[in-house]
Model the fold of this input.
Amino acid sequence: MQPPSRPPTDVRSQLVGPMLAYLRATGHDPSPLVERFGLPANASALPEVTLPLATLHAFLDAAEALSGDAFLGLHVAQRVPRGNYGLVEYIARASPTVRDTFRALARYMALLEPAWRASFQDAPDGSGTFVYGIPGEPLAYGRHASEFGLALFVHVGRQLTEHPWNPRHVSFAHPAPADLRPLEQHFGVTPAFDAGRNALTLDAATLALRVVDADPVLLSVLERAAGTPPPSHRRRPPPLFLQQVRDALRASLREGAADGRRGPAAPRQPPHPPAPARRARHVVPGRGRRSAP
Done:
């Protein structure tokens, strides 16, 4: 009998920066949070921050307290800048249909954080369910991060298809908040809670919707750069040159989307790889050993 999965001590989060930027944009000075949780002064501009999972939970709770916004994750998702998720995001954006987009997310999500376990399952009626979570951590990244994640997938999916679709079913890892109305308004359905993982079920017609700016040539280039994600989260780092090419592609795509305008993520012809450059990220040191639940 194998021992139960243990959650990771440290995780990579792409939400910290957008969360800090959102707080500042809505009139709340995030400096006390930056200092309290040992974040870098420019954390709002970093593509990702590595920090203990328990610290991430506490940071998101503190951000809610500072803002007074009980649906902070949902509201950040509705205005997060394009390109925040780099290579994985642009693979999804270049995919031909909504079904292909969620299959790509399931395949490559571990590139964002190796602890994530994601899958996409097709049903006999043509519907499909995208599921993700962290083994051994029933709350995953916490309530605000989970609501951010699923809200973002739906928000961006509507933009990509230029169609106001709703999922058939939504479920969250965390317990239900007191007021469900903001989530119901965003998703168009009443979510389920306490599921131990996050999930979206879409019907066959929604999954068949075409992505307006899909680009098969660009998709091929990006998938070659991403490589094949390993099945285990205990993965070896890629060769240095390959990692430099990936980082340079992420940086180039992020700069190309900085103006926030909708349009092709990159030229229709495969670009020449830019000069290798390392992607900046920050590691927040742990504050002592975190005991496993």
